[in-house]
Design goal:
mainly alpha; 70 residues; globular
Amino acid sequence: MISQEKLQKSEHFNSLDHIQKQIILKKANRERISLGLKMSELRSFDFWVENQSPSERVRNIVEELIINEL
């Protein structure tokens, strides 16, 4: 599962308000983000979006983390 520290380095995460940040840092959302990163690595980002229909915030964070990893 993705660490809170790694999430807090994300530009999109830092643009959220305090309540939204707390929601993203919950275990369930961190698991969704980790799943998105793994599925994007194995198949593709678009495949993950089509099959999992993530929230806009989660999708943006995963997309940013993928771009920054390259």
